[in-house]
Design goal:
four-stranded parallel β-sheet
């Protein structure tokens, strides 16, 4: 079975989507629609902006969503997903491809999400850190012993867990991880404490938008971040999508459950190859690939 997977924040790069725009009228039309919906020419920033331009949350998240989704929609007749999943932001891309939500509604939600997260970051400063070489349960135990907000945020693959929370608490936790034998415990250059209780304000704002959005019955299950399990019910999908902002991304669990349910090929759609690398670290015997942007007609 083919599983289509969609990347999240951090996969952006200057010039992203330009080849797609130039080689496909369908893609160009989608980019023009996106510019109208967002109220600014995000295509200009994607195609000609700097790395710094693309780092702004209000630009980063819609850019990655557009790169993933527009390419997939230009290949709609060739893409027959039997299951989908997305890493954090990528979950919105996955929901467009399994037809839970429309392209337009997906982009609107991503834009609202990005702006709400930016506001939450400004009001509740925080950060994240990558922890390499420790068992998940030991990372969780150390987090629980630290005063302040510090929680597991991304279960990326065995031996790679990202934590999130208040700056001082994260820095102290990193010291404790190194003492416990972590190969690395490194504070990340991110703008806030994503997937932690510090995102509660953003969650409330996004919840209102999600509840006002029409969700349809999907053509295949989506394995959602909050628990790594498959869902096909519109109400359950919405509930999990709302919880996502303050809950950890259970990517390892999602991939393992997809494999258990029959996935034998993972296809990454969108910028970069980060998710392929994570899938290989979770199960080295699984076939992984990415869709080739150069083949768009």
């Amino acid at each position: 079975m083919k599983a289509y997977i969609f990347p999240g924040q951090g996969a952006q790069f200057p010039g992203m989507g330009k080849d797609l725009f130039d080689s496909s009228k369908t893609a160009a039309d989608f980019f023009n629609i996106a510019n109208e919906i967002l109220g600014f020419k995000i295509s200009n920033i994607m195609f000609g902006g700097t790395s710094e331009d693309l780092r702004q949350t209000s630009v980063t998240q819609p850019s990655i969503f557009l790169h993933s989704v527009i390419f997939a929609l230009t290949k709609e007749n060739e893409i027959t997903p039997e299951m989908v999943a997305g890493h954090s932001l990528g979950e919105f891309s996955a929901l467009v491809i399994n037809k839970s939500i429309s392209f337009e509604d997906g982009l609107k939600l991503v834009s609202i999400r990005a702006n709400a997260m930016q506001k939450a970051c400004e009001n509740n400063p925080g950060t994240m850190a990558a922890v390499l070489g420790l068992e998940d349960n030991l990372v969780e135990k150390i987090c629980e012993e630290i005063e302040g907000v510090v929680v597991a945020a991304n279960y990326n693959c065995p031996g790679q867990l990202v934590i999130s929370g208040e700056i001082n608490s994260i820095e102290l936790a990193c010291e404790k991880f190194k003492e416990a034998g972590a190969r690395r415990a490194l504070v990340l250059p991110v703008g806030g404490a994503f997937h932690s209780p510090l995102m509660e304000q953003a969650k409330n704002e996004l919840e209102d938008a999600i509840n006002k959005t029409v969700f349809n019955s999907p053509i295949c299950p989506i394995y959602q971040n909050v628990n790594g399990l498959p869902f096909s019910s519109e109400n359950e999908i919405k509930k999990n999508l709302i919880s996502q902002l303050t809950s950890p991304v259970k990517w390892t669990q999602s991939v393992n459950n997809m494999i258990t349910d029959g996935a034998n090929e993972f296809i990454e759609v969108g910028p970069g190859r980060v998710l392929q690398g994570l899938v290989k670290k979770i199960n080295r015997d699984i076939n992984c690939s990415s869709l080739n942007l150069e083949n768009v007609e």
